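Usage

Read records sequentially. Each one opens with the input sequence:
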Amino acid sequence: MSVLEQVQDDVRTAMKARERERAAALRLVVDVLQQDAKLGKGDEIAVLQRERKKRLEAAEAYDKAGRDEQAAAERFEAELIEGYLPQQLSDEELARLVDEAVAETRAGEQRAMGQ
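and closes with the structure output:
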């Protein structure tokens, strides 16, 4: 099941449960994903990351302007979008993967990195 299909299912579920805020936020996500699909880009994860970033930036701007209610709404949407993104690697996990790759390729010094 694609991310778009999952979000569409969640919109229907939210509508049945009468969760208006959640349904409205999910509809916005569906719209953006559908627009991206029509353009033929098809990178749903990149779209979700971009939309999440927009929401977080908007929340920060609303906070600076003293508009707490709008900031909270933007954060709610960002958290909702984050639920559809794959879990990010921690710094420790990333460092471990890099160390394993370096050890596996025996690229201990800089001139060996290109091999």
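Summary fields computed downstream for this record:
- The CA atoms of residues 49 and 85 lie 7 Å apart.
- The chain has a mean pLDDT of 85.
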